[in-house]
Amino acid sequence: MLEYLAGQIVDDPSAIHVEVEQGRGGVTLRLHVAPDDMGKVIGKRGRVAQSIRTLVRAAGAREGIGVNVDIVD
Questions:
Q1: What rounded mean pLDDT belongs to the chain?
Q2: CA atoms of 33 and 13, how far apart (whole Å)
Q3: Residue 55: phi, psi to the nearest 5?
Q4: In this predicted structure, what is the pLDDT of residue 7?
Q5: Structurally, how many domains does the chain consist of?
Q6: Range of the domain at 33
Q7: What is the DSSP string of 21-53?
Q8: Residue 64 belongs to domain with CATH number
C-alpha cells in the first residue's frame, strides 16, 4: 500500500524503495524516494506525510499489525 500511495504522488515511481524492519512494536517501513520528489511526499507542513502514515497505519491495524512509516532522504 505504501508503494502504491507514494507512486501516485511522485514524478519518478521507479526510484521508490521500501525497507521493512520487524521490531517489538510491530513493523517499521522506511520509504526512500528520489531527492526531487521528497518535497511532494512530505507536503506542506508535513500534511501529505502524515496522511500517508495514517493510511498505512490503518491498513496495518486492519490486519492486526502495528506499522510505522519513516520517510528517509
A1: 94
A2: 8
A3: -65, -45
A4: 94
A5: 1
A6: 2-72
A7: EEETTEEEEEEE--GGGHHHHH-GGGHHHHHHH
A8: 3.30.300.20
